[in-house]
Amino acid sequence: QLQLVESGGGLVQPGGSLRLSCAASGFTLDTYAIGWFRQAPGKEREGVSCINSSGGITNYADSMKGRFTISRDNTKNTVYLQMNSLKPEDTAVYYCAARAWRCRSAVRDFGSWGQGTQVTVSS
To answer: How far is CA 12 from the centre of its chain?
Structure first.
């Protein structure tokens, strides 16, 4: 059974950093693209970043460019999201999701999801 588990969330002050992890079990990640999404209270789930199966292609939502970095270690079956210069508006539940091979931007294009990890940016 394909399973994704996010970790690394928490409370951080504005300007701080967090590194989220998305660990896979029940399958190997090397044939899957992994997307990070987030959902703030009262808002729709939105795309944050995505990395393709080989790690050679990454993309980011405009508001995350230059602050967030996605990476993967297929030997550890894990994808990471390094988040720097965090802002209060980054507060949300962050989810990782998997789809075969290539990234897509829409939530509906990803079939397997983790349970999410809470990120709160506040002083």
So the answer is: 17
Q: What is the pLDDT of residues 23-34, one digit of tens each?
A: 998 888 899 999
Q: Which of 10, 27, 8 is nearest to 82 (CA)?
A: 8
What distance in Å separates the CA atoms of residue 103 and residue 51, rounded to the nearest whole number? 6
Helix/strand/coil (H/E/C) assignment for every residue in 44-57: CCEEEEEECCCCCC
93: which residues sit within 8 A by CB, 6+ positions away?
38, 39, 40, 116, 117, 118, 119
- Pseudo-torsion of CA 105, 107, 109, 114, nearest 10°? 120
Over residues 53-84, the pLDDT tens digits come to 999 999 999 999 999 999 999 999 999 999 99
